[in-house]
Design a protein that fits this description.
The complex is a heterodimer of chains A (256) and B (573). Helices cover 68% and strands 2% of the residues of chain A. Chain A is mainly α. In chain A, strand 1 and strand 2 (93-94) form a beta hairpin. Chain B is α/β, with parallel strands linked by helices and 573 residues long. Chain B has a domain at 18-242: Rossmann fold, CATH 3.40.50.300. Chain B has 21 helices and 20 strands. Chain B has a 6-stranded mixed β-sheet with strand order 6-7-8-3-9-10, with helices on both faces. Chain B has a 6-stranded mixed β-sheet with strand order 16-17-18-13-19-20, sandwiched between helices. A 4-stranded antiparallel β-sheet of chain B has the order 2-1-4-5, covered by helices on one side. Chain B is globular and about 70 Å long. Classes of the chains: A mainly alpha (256), B alpha/beta (573). At the A-B interface, helix 7 and helix 9 of A face helix 3, strand 6, helix 4, helix 5 and strand 16 of B.
Chain lengths: 256, 573
């Protein structure tokens, strides 16, 4: 059972120079945040999710579906309450607040979809390589990539701890949201302790294998910036430019 | 200095790879007289396979960490004496600088693998050292060939078997081309086939001229090399040829370590010297045969006659695209201890999770005392079924032993007086009475395992499920844990335990079930199951040493006790 987002398959974006993909990530993440109208943020969601499906990352999106739904629901409710409008639907909820919340929720999910597209086609290793290629110091890039790679292990530990506690009578299934959230508290200590123990071991393992031994680190595989990379950069920049142009022309914002 | 009673003749080496001079080390907070290492002195030459033996906490890992400089550079404490490896004083060079001379493979191999492919995992070390690309390729290829994993370059390390993962971890260190390689408890989590793979690699590397140190608490696994160092409470108790620890003058019992079955048989038969452990059981059996009594019929443990308490009926389960249980069926009777064995990935842990309601069958059914687990959660089943996970740390979370053990009884709604009684009974049973106020998280692993067991016992379940209850424990701790299991069983608890330690099966179980690819591959008394080498081999298993010798001798013995009983004392009829 795996808990990460990376999907190993010969997709169009797999093995593409990670520097180009980091640029794609930045552009893909920026564009949805240029808009507030749900029609426009929804369109950016369709573009990023469609791109993820097209390059074989459907599985990554499916794994995040509950997170997406949670974000949209929470954002819609939050903004509906915080942003009053003249057209009241029920109690303090207005059409304007709901639309603003929907636009905000969709833009977050659109950004997350680009993240899923990146992480579904890029290993933590390649991410580190890409960041180093863009000038980030290796220890920082490695730590970032490692934290991404450790998420599946962290989740696996949490599942294992959860199982052990459920077998001792911890009831995580019944009751309301608050009761179920409180029921999860006993999981925190063992998960944190197991993770700390793992991190300690990992730090020693890295030392044992010469981590930061040499100022100039070498790489077994050197990424190559070729035609595919150039095309990806061009498409990403064109997407960003289009987004900025549309926004500059005054489209994509809520008028109320 | 080590005990002169246990000093064998160690051939002088032309070259010195390791020199330890009065090395002592104490962790922060550790009392001066309780140091992790005390005045260790020894020298080791090249081309040797060295067994570093000792009970849990004897100082094996600490010594390994001294060799590669983790102590004193990454782990602080009181270090005195000198450690020189390949002519380098470890206190004057960083871990990274020493990495090209001495490689340390840590105990938990899962935490040492962090790259997406085997090739990149192995290349990590040379890349860090700034080695050129062509040279990295050569080293990766050579390291993978040395551990027998050529062709695995593009595989995901986390998707490999336990033995293969451990070999990847070894290759990752080998690619640094160290002259000294130390494997810390590299075999304790592996099935017998995985253990054999790692041992074969260690032998080959020593044959190439490297110094290979195998730190372990089980002499049976590693006493087939050239040299042995035995630690007890941080002191070097014996430093001798490996064979010096076999036979009549063995230092192992005094160090609290189990003597290999073959060695005990050798002594029992009055043979001189030491059994040739490295040459296999067939060779040893040939020499023991003249001292063997004719085979006799041994009574089996009386079979349990209680009602059927667990019925597993044609169960299918998978994790997405990974099948786990594949039409599994068997019954367990009240009062039985059933051992579930099998190679890695056979479905053993998945089975336990079905019985305690953590998982539910996709097809088929699991019945506990006639009641289907369908629609029931683990917390609803916990009054009938107690489950102790493989890692006790996943179970313990309270600040005191009392609160941890009281968790389930409180959840079950018992009155506080009844909770107190349940906790007292459970702690008494596991020998932890009087330690209610201690913090379980900071206890040694054997004690943590006991607290976890007490937590399950306090539920007063009819059935107790144990997932690898002996992993990571040394021999005395294993015996302590298994005696507890036996005692609970005698009080009426039915037990199903998953285990890799096959020697515990004939000692404690009434019945053994072998799983392979999610279904029952063999089932019967431990004698029948462990006596069939071919059936076991089909699942990547081997009979435990006493049973293997019993098979070679044709006497049907499966435990050390039975093996010794079949030999004539002192070699004379």
């Amino acid at each position: 059972m795996t808990y990460g987002l990376y999907v190993e398959r010969p997709g169009a974006l797999h093995r593409v120079d990670p520097r180009a993909k980091v640029l794609m990530l930045v552009c893909g993440f920026t564009v949805p945040f240029l808009f507030s109208s749900p029609a426009y943020t929804g369109a950016t969601l369709l573009i990023s999710a469609g791109a993820a499906v097209a390059v074989g990352c459907t599985e990554s999106l499916v794994r995040l579906r509950w997170l997406f739904l949670t974000f949209i629901t929470m954002t819609v409710l939050l903004w509906a309450l915080l942003r009053p409008g003249p057209t009241i639907v029920w109690w303090r909820l207005s059409v304007e607040g709901l639309l603003y919340g929907l636009g905000a929720g969709l833009k977050i999910v659109a950004g997350m979809s680009v993240g899923a597209l990146f992480l579904g086609t890029t290993t933590g290793e390649e991410t580190a390589r890409g960041l180093v290629g863009l000038g980030v110091p290796y220890p920082a890039a490695f730590a970032f990539a490692l934290s991404l790679q450790m998420i599946p292990g962290f989740v696996a530990t949490a599942v294992s701890v959860r199982d052990a506690q459920r077998a001792r009578g911890l009831d995580l299934e019944s009751g309301g949201v608050l009761r179920r959230t409180r029921a999860h508290l006993p999981l925190l200590a063992p998960v944190m302790l197991a993770t700390l123990r793992q991190s300690d071991q990992l730090a020693m393992a890295l030392e044992c294998r010469g981590f930061r031994a040499h100022r100039r680190r070498t790489w077994l595989h050197e990424p190559r910036f070729g035609a595919r990379e150039a095309l990806l950069v061009a498409v990403s920049l064109a997407y960003l430019a289009t987004g900025i142009a549309v926004r500059t022309m005054g489209y994509g914002t809520l008028t109320v | 200095m080590h005990d002169p009673r246990y000093a064998g003749t160690i051939p002088a080496a032309n070259e010195e790879r390791i020199r330890l001079q009065e090395v002592s080390f104490g962790y922060p907070g550790q009392a001066e007289d309780m140091s992790a290492l005390s005045a260790i002195s020894s020298t080791v030459g090249p081309g040797l396979l060295v067994a570093l033996l000792g009970r849990s906490g004897a100082g094996k890992s600490t010594l390994g960490r001294c060799l590669n400089g983790l102590i004193p550079h990454a782990i602080r404490g009181r270090l005195s004496g000198r450690v020189r490896v390949c002519g380098q004083d470890t206190s004057e060079h960083t871990v990274a600088q020493l990495a090209g001379h001495v490689g340390l493979v840590l105990q938990d191999f899962e935490n040492q693998l962090f790259r997406p492919t085997v090739e990149l995992e192995v290349a990590f070390g040379p890349e860090n050292l700034g080695v050129g690309r062509q040279e990295i390729r050569r080293r990766v290829s050579a390291a993978l060939e040395a551990v027998g994993l050529s062709g695995f370059e593009q595989r995901d390390p986390m998707a490999l078997s336990g033995g293969q993962k451990q070999r990847v971890a070894v290759a990752g260190v080998l690619a640094l081309e160290p002259d000294v390689l130390c494997l810390d408890e590299a075999m304790s989590d592996l099935d017998p086939i995985g253990q054999r793979e790692v041992l074969a690699v260690a032998r080959r590397l020593a044959g190439e001229g490297r110094t290979v140190i195998l730190a372990d608490h089980d002499p049976e696994r590693v006493l087939c090399g050239d040299r042995a160092l035995v630690l007890k409470d941080g002191r070097l108790m014996a430093d001798c040829p490996a064979a010096g620890l076999l036979g009549a003058r063995s230092a192992l019992p005094e160090a609290g370590l189990p003597e290999p079955a073959a060695s005990q048989a050798w002594v029992r038969a009055g043979m001189d010297g030491a059994p040739p452990l490295g040459e296999g059981f067939r060779v040893i059996a040939e020499q023991l045969r003249p001292h063997c009594r004719p085979p006799e019929t041994r009574p089996a443990k009386p079979a349990a006659t209680g009602d059927t308490v667990i019925e597993v009926r044609d169960v299918y389960f998978d994790y997405g695209d990974q099948p786990a249980l594949n039409g599994l069926s068997f019954d367990v009777r009240e009062g039985e201890i059933v051992a579930v064995i099998g190679g890695n990935g056979g479905g053993k842990s998945t089975l336990l999770k079905h019985v305690c309601g953590l998982l539910h069958p996709l097809r088929g059914d699991v019945l506990i005392a006639g009641r289907s687990t369908r629609g029931l959660t683990a917390s609803q089943l916990c009054q009938d079924v107690g489950y102790v996970a493989q890692n006790p740390d996943h179970q313990l979370f309270s600040a005191t032993v009392y609160d941890d053990v009281a968790f389930a009884p409180r959840h079950l709604g018992l009155a506080e007086d009844d909770v107190r009684a349940a906790v007292a009974d459970a702690l008494e049973a596991v020998g932890m009475a009087g330690r209610e106020r201690e913090d379980p998280i900071t206890m040694p692993k054997g004690d943590r395992q006991r607290v976890a067991l007490a937590g399950a016992l306090a539920q007063r379940p009819r059935v107790l499920l144990l997932d690898e209850p002996t992993t990571g424990l040394d021999h005395e701790e294993v015996v302590g844990t298994m005696e507890l299991v036996r005692m609970m069983n005698e009080r009426g608890t039915t037990v199903i335990m998953v285990t890799h330690s096959l020697w515990v099966v004939p000692e404690y179980a009434h019945r053994a079930i072998v799983l392979r690819e999610g279904r029952v591959h063999a089932e019967g008394t431990p004698r029948d199951v462990l006596g069939s080498r071919d059936r076991l081999a089909e699942c990547g298993l081997e009979p435990p040493p006493a049973a293997a010798l019993g098979i070679e001798l044709g006497i049907g013995a499966v435990t050390v006790e039975e093996l010794l009983a079949a030999l004539e004392v002192g070699g004379s009829p």
